Amino acid sequence: xxxxxxxxxxxxxxxxxxxxxxxxxxxxxxxxxxxxxxxxxxxxxxxxxxxxxxxxxxxxxxxxxxxxxxxxxxxxxxxxxxxxxxxxxxxxxxxxxxxxxxxxxxxxxxxxxxxxxxxxxxxxxxxxxxxxxxxxxxxxxxxxxxxxxxxxxxxxxxxxxxxxxxxxxxxxxxxxxxxxxxxxxxxxxxxxxxxxxxxxxxxxxxxxxxxxxxxxxxxxxxxxxxxxxxxxxxxxxxxxxxxxxxxxxxxxxxxxxxxxxxxxxxxxxxxxxxxxxxxxxxxxxxxxxxxxxxxxxxxxxxxxxxxxxxxxxxxxxxxxxxxxxxxxx
Length: 329
What we know:
Blueprint: H1 2-21, H2 28-40, H3 44-55, E1 63-67, H4 73-77, E2 88-94, E3 102-107, H5 114-124, E4 137-143, E5 146-152, H6 154-166, H7 187-198, H8 200-203, E6 211-212, E7 230-240, E8 249-258, H9 264-274, E9 286-291, E10 295-301, H10 308-319, E11 323-327
Antiparallel strand pairs: 1-2, 2-3, 3-5, 4-5, 6-7, 7-8, 8-10, 9-10, 9-11
């Protein structure tokens, strides 16, 4: 009888092991591949906008965007110790050094260890990198071959971490969160919004006097732009003579709403080729080009106006969610 019981128990164990060996294996790599595929064609700039929209943090109001490279990642983390490679990266950085905040997203090469990359970011981040302020919390999370890094106050970090997790949820639709702040605005209305912030008396450009639609006699080569490509436009120019503080100062700001079917980025390139700022008064000229799906903006400034290249870049890239590019002419 004892032998019979032992035989039965042995057979039961064999059957149990056989059942276990036939159990289907989990395939996390398939899930990861599907996730990577769904996010692979989404620009990192747009992913940052989606994170902002889901979290409701409004970080575009006090931050500007910048691409991350191996050369400038130390400025993002606040230390020089991070050496791991990545395919691309982009960050929201604060416009004021008294704001303790960074939000960055990275896309890694296929097969890279995203979790190890996230952990290395946390280990190398310096929450004390700002002037007189400190980040309360540092967090990094991976999702497929993407990694989000954030440091700031606890509430913002928590909300952005939750927002990043939503990107991987089944049925998530990114396009529902890609709002367009420029939709429905005429160029006059956009100019009015900018003027309220950046009028000549406060910041040294946009005097609210010499502006209007681009016409056949508009200077700086703007008249050479094919007018059928846009339905609405504003151009504003200003000049102040030399003084003891800053010599001659001048600027030109041109904004266009594209006609249906016109590619904004292609138009932006044509605009860059047509504009002639050789007569722009003053030295130290800087240039900025910005575009969304159907709005293109060009700015050139000299003298004390030149620093507004950074100011406008922050406005267009952060608040109005436009692509921006600094120019050399």
